[in-house]
């Protein structure tokens, strides 16, 4: 029985992603963002429960990738597509009708990221490239900032050049040969988890001070701390 528990949690991740897509199609990106957060919690729990219960199976690995492709592949591409549509401004000679389709580059590169992850034996305790949940949380936070932010947030986020740069940057980071630490604790000692504790502490402070605006900054902090760790180990 216990071997089915992680897979059931994975299915809840997938269901949350489907609901997120429904609300995106309805134009309600705020609900989409909340459901992305719920999907991310389920995605974290299924892996944790699989480790705790020792309920590993090949179907679970494949199911997890398929669920992630919806929740953290199709959803962020759709959100970016809609944000481009809302900007309604042409860029570099590309019409405002065609430009939004560039948002689906995130979906394409998410698929590549997930496919690489499944066959890359280096990513058992850490990541190579930005995890799809982190990318999606970044994208999904933009509508929340628009909803609760200022006019400046609105003008910056819905600038088509900003959206295009973010699309290309996130797509690159998904498949980049960039080692990133994972939030997986084998124990609670400071020596083994100092970087994780520092990240979590700074993330809490940023969220307390900046609320929704802090979410993309937390993702940037995650990448920067990983780069600093890699640089310090190389020197």
UniProtKB/TrEMBL annotation:
Keywords: Membrane, Transferase, Transmembrane, Transmembrane helix
Organism listed in the record: Pontibacter ummariensis
Single biological process term from Gene Ontology: phospholipid biosynthetic process
Family the UniProt entry places it in: Belongs to the CDP-alcohol phosphatidyltransferase class-I family.
Pfam families, A to Z: CDP-OH_P_transf
Protein name: CDP-diacylglycerol---serine O-phosphatidyltransferase
MF GO annotations: phosphotransferase activity, for other substituted phosphate groups
Gene Ontology CC annotations of this record: membrane
Transmembrane segments: 31-53, 91-115, 127-145, 157-176, 197-225
Domain of life: Bacteria
